[in-house]
Amino acid sequence: MDDKLRNAAEEAKGKVKEKTGEATDDRDLEAEGKTDQTKANLKQAAEKVKDAFKD
What we know:
By secondary structure, this protein is mainly α. The protein has helices at about 1-25, 25-55. The chain has 2 helices and no strands. The mean pLDDT is about 95.
């Protein structure tokens, strides 16, 4: 459960970075936010796969 919460927090942090980058016209920050979101989504997918094999 802890990993899922960390992944959700990482995704939320990425969204904040992305939106802040858009608002300030900082393309690097926006890209970093998108990267953080992608990483979090991949980790969440891996957790789902692990959960599927536990059952």
